[in-house]
Amino acid sequence: MSHSRVVVVTGGGDGIGAMVVRRLASEGWSVCVADIDETSATAIAADLTDRGHRVIGVGADVSCEADVERIGEVAETELGALSGWINNAGNTSPSMLLKMEVDAFDSVLAVHARGSFLGVREAARRMVRSESGGAIINVTSSAGLGGTVGQINYASAKGAIIAMTKSAAKELGRYNIRVNAVAPSASTEMTRTIMTNEKFAKTYLSRIALGRFAEADEMSATFSFLLSDDAGYMTGQVLSIDGGTYMVS
Length: 249
Ligand SMILES: NC(=O)c1ccc[n+]([C@@H]2O[C@H](COP(=O)([O-])OP(=O)(O)OC[C@H]3O[C@@H](n4cnc5c(N)ncnc54)[C@H](O)[C@@H]3O)[C@@H](O)[C@H]2O)c1
Description:
Elements: E1 6-10, H1 15-26, E2 30-35, H2 38-50, E3 55-59, H3 65-79, E4 84-87, H4 102-130, E5 134-139, H5 142-146, H6 152-172, E6 177-184, H7 188-195, H8 198-206, H9 216-227, E7 238-241
Parallel strand pairs: 1-2, 1-4, 2-3, 4-5, 5-6, 6-7
Helix pairs in contact: 1-9, 3-4, 4-6
């Protein structure tokens, strides 16, 4: 990118977000890691700072408006004008539809849907103000594309994120702000859990066209690409990184 390379990664203290933070830092991005688990956010920031990268950690809840505004403020004050923002933070509260409590529905919608909305809005306000354009990435899931069993709250939130991505892309294109979504498959941690159950692992793998789980870098590479000028003519898209598990005609 020709302008500053400053990016916020929500939920960057662990899992997929942490893989993305490490990749972007190694590519020269200045990264603000925002996570409700402040300890993990500051730990990854300290580790990467020790390795010579420019990374800060912020404790924040993405479902809280004031917290998201604070993330934007801290990131720009300490690192410079934002050119990227990744809405990756997520939670789950699974149960079958017939048993699902309203609280379980609301709490998952609050983090994924409201949290992504707040992140997109905060990033866009700052990018519009600096007139330098930028790239926003939202994290959805095959659950949001094709539905799932036992997580109607999560699938609803991820479906909302897809529609939000397209709507924001349409509104923000004229400011040269691109908004895309990625739909990852099992992260390293989840893969480990699946692999401990031989029968489940076999069933799971049989659904993946490539017949194997993702390497960490295969996941983070797509995030890096979508932030880069190489994706300069892409907006409003959903990219699946799932070895061919979910395919749309
Ligand atoms: N792991 C998968 O198989 C998979 C598949 C498809 C999509 N996803 C999506 O990828 C994203 C990352 O998932 P993951 O598997 O790495 O999860 P994870 O649980 O390993 O990490 C999520 C991170 O988000 C943080 N977080 C949770 N609630 C937060 C909040 N309110 N505010 C700020 N931070 C918060 C957590 O502390 C954690 O560090 C999520 O959006 C998830 O829905 C994951």
